[in-house]
Each structure stands twice: as structure tokens, then as C-alpha cells.
Structure prediction request, 129 residues.
Amino acid sequence: MRINRQGQFLPEPDASEPHHVIAMQEISGFDQLDQLLTLAVVRFAAESFADGRALSLARQLRLRGFEGAVELIGDILPDQLPMVVAAGIDIVEISEAHAARCTEAHWREQASKTRFGYQRSLGRAESAP
Prediction:
């Protein structure tokens, strides 16, 4: 099942379209990212929802000027969707079994959230304890 940035389930793409899936361990440096800049679609495969390398690689690819589509293949969790979008990923592909557990409503709800992160805002003054 494919999911867009708005959390909507999408139809499967035409299977005849060529695409290259890149495993995280295939990328070991920026020079390899630079080789991807001419592709129309880059598809990263993550082994688990805990593998954040795809987000880092997608972000670095966007910072290097990549304007094509970035896709992530892996069973991430719906609450990770705002982070995925912020990293520059356009489409997430999850298994049918995972889609049965995490419905489109879950994904849409999470897509409406924009704040994520673990650090407090530096813009407001904090009182000392």
C-alpha cells in the first residue's frame, strides 16, 4: 500500500515502470547521493520503523538539490509521517498486513500534524526550576 504526504492511500503504480530500490547499507557517502541527483524517483528501503537512515538520506538528498520524487519502502508507523514529510519523502510504501492494522484514517490524522521533535523551542524564555 502506498501513502502520500496527506496520509491518503494510493493505487499501486504501473509495475512496468523501471525503478531502483536502494537499501540503506548501499549508501556510505555523499558521492553516492550525488549519483542519485539525476534520477526521477529515488526509492529507499528501510528494514524497520526504527531505521531513521532513510530520513537522513532523504534530507541530505533534498539539501543537495534533488527535485524528483523520494519514496520510502518500509512499515513505518503513522505517527512518523510528519517526520517523513519534513525529511522530504513524498510517498511511503507499507505492506498490506501493516495497512490492515494502520488504517487510512490513522495516516490522515497524523498527516495533519506538523510539529515533531524532541527539543524545546529556543524562541521562548524558560524559567529556572
Remarks:
- Residues 4 and 91 are 5 Å apart (CA to CA).
